[in-house]
Every structure is written in structure tokens, then in C-alpha cells.
Amino acid sequence: MNKISLLLTFAVFAILGCQDFNYEGKGKDVATAGTIQIGFDSGDSLLVNQWIELFEFNYPKAHVVPKFASQAQLLNWIKQDSIQAFVLHNELSKDKQDWICEKRNIKMRATILGYAAPVFIVSKNTSFSELSLVELLRIFSNSANFRNCKVAFDPNGINILQINDTAQKYISEKVNLNTNKTIHFANSQQIIDYVSTHDNTIGVVSLNLIASKKDRLAMSNIKKVKVLSIGNIANNAYYLPFQSQIKAKQYPFIQPLIGYDFQGYSGLGNGFITYVRSQPGQIIVKKSGLIPAFDEGRTIEIIEE
């Protein structure tokens, strides 16, 4: 009994110690304390701000500074040692991963945090509400200007037209954005504001900025625009970027949210990414309209009396 009591006491002090750990790692931080700069895609700002708010509430000694930018800019910040981790909408190529590992002299860790999707929006007054996948790709390419549409997008967006595996095998065309009919904006919010007042302009934005039912900005955004249904060549059906249709890979576009930690030790970057993968972080992903990496769904039991 004395041995058991001693082990229990040690376990309790170990758990409490995790909440108030003063050891400083290489970057003067540990998994739950210190300061770190993490890079994110600007389209996920509503989701990211909720992650950080909850993480810092649970760990008051931790301070995460978000830096929103394009993938190119994030990689440039790595050169400058300005960020210690980032969350991207795609998997980095092996060459880029090797480059980061060589520069940092560490083994980088990659973790899937959830799934998102690009959303195609038009004004409420635009006559059409759906597009086939081929037609959409042609609008975005140098092909004929179908429907005489212009395209509004962020040129620094991260793999905004990444097609999922199901659709990819049916597509032979490559998407090359035609600069003659594109309008560039600095961020997704500017795109939403512009498209809402300009008919026959297709905007490309992140799902997070219109899907969250708990955020006032997202709820305001969805009232301004119309979201297009996109055809899936696999079955000639049209799908909206709903959570269920993204999860089932029916919506033709899907983007993984991947957290990359390249601190080289168990610091705040790994602590934050691990927390996002935990139940509280995954709940925020789901409430934000995205797909959690661990989405077990709900089981409803019907009892007949």
C-alpha cells in the first residue's frame, strides 16, 4: 500500500507540474509555456484565433503569435528564423521538407489537424448557382471565357485549386490562371466584399470565412454571397462544401490542414499542435465548419418501447 500511495503522489505532482513547468528549452519555451510565432494561411484566421484563445486560456504561460501569409512567405520566414512552426493547406514536397530539415538540422514533424476546402462564391444577383468541374476549370484557365466571368482571388493563396484524388483521375486539363480576367486581392475578406457587389465575378475563399456558425463575421459573410455547387465528374452530381460532402469526398476540392513543427525539441510548437489534435481543438475545427482529423460522428440509438 505504501508503494502504491507513493506512486499516486508522484503521478499527481507530475500532472500538476505539466501546468507550471519552468524548464527552458532551446527557444526558451516548453510544450505549455513560453512564446512562439506560428505561420498560418490567412483564410483560416477565424479558426486559428479560437485555437489560440482556448490554448492560452488553459496554459496562461503560453503565448502563440500567429503570422498569416502565403506558403511562399512562410518559407521565406523560415530562412529568417521568424517562425518555428506552420499550418498549411497541403503537404510539402520532399525537397522542401529536406530543405527545412537541413537548414534547421532537425527532423520535422508533420501532423494532420483536419480538412478544409476552397469555396467558390458569386453575388446574390448572379444568374447561375452551379458549375460543372470542367466548366469551372476552364473559367480559371486560358480556355474560352465561359459565362463571361471574372475571377477574384488571392494570388498568394495556398493550393487554392487542389483537386481531391476522386476528381483528379477524371481531369486531364491543367489549371493555369488567366491574368487577363483575374482580379487580385490581399485576403479572402476583401474578395467576399467585392464579389457581393459585382455580378458574374467568381470569388475563391477559404471555407472557414463563411462556414462557422458561431462567428459573427462568418455569419455576416454568408448572407452577402451565394456559394456555388460544383459538379463531380465521378457521378455527374453537384455538391456544396458541406461538412458531410467534404468528408465523403463528394465535393471535388479538399485540402488537408497539416501542422509542421520544426523546433527540433518538445517545445511550444509541438505543444500547440498536439493540443489542436486533442478533443477541445478538434471540436473547434468542427464548429468552424471544417472537418476534424478525428471525427467519429454521433451514434443515435433508437429504443422501441
Topology:
Elements: H1 2-19, E1 34-40, H2 45-58, E2 62-68, H3 71-79, E3 85-88, H4 94-104, E4 109-116, E5 118-123, E6 130-131, H5 133-139, E7 150-153, H6 165-168, E8 182-184, H7 188-195, E9 201-206, H8 208-211, H9 216-224, E10 225-227, E11 229-232, E12 237-239, H10 243-247, E13 255-261, H11 268-277, H12 279-287, E14 291-292
Parallel strand pairs: 1-2, 1-3, 6-11, 7-8, 7-9
Antiparallel strand pairs: 3-13, 4-13, 4-14, 5-9, 5-10, 11-12
What does this protein look like?
- The chain is an alpha/beta fold.
- The protein folds into 2 domains: 22-115 and 256-292, D-Maltodextrin-Binding Protein, domain 2 (3-Layer(aba) Sandwich); 118-252, Periplasmic binding protein-like II (D-Maltodextrin-Binding Protein, domain 2).
- It has 12 helices and 14 strands.
- The protein has helices at residues 2-19, 45-58, 71-79, 94-104, 133-139, 165-168, 188-195, 208-211, 216-224, 243-247, 268-277, 279-287; strands spanning 34-40, 62-68, 85-88, 109-116, 118-123, 130-131, 150-153, 182-184, 201-206, 225-227, 229-232, 237-239, 255-261, 291-292.
- A 6-stranded mixed β-sheet has the order 2-1-3-13-4-14.
- Strand 1 (34-40), helix 2 and strand 2 (62-68) form a beta-alpha-beta unit.
- The model is unreliable at 1-25 and 169-174 (pLDDT under 50).
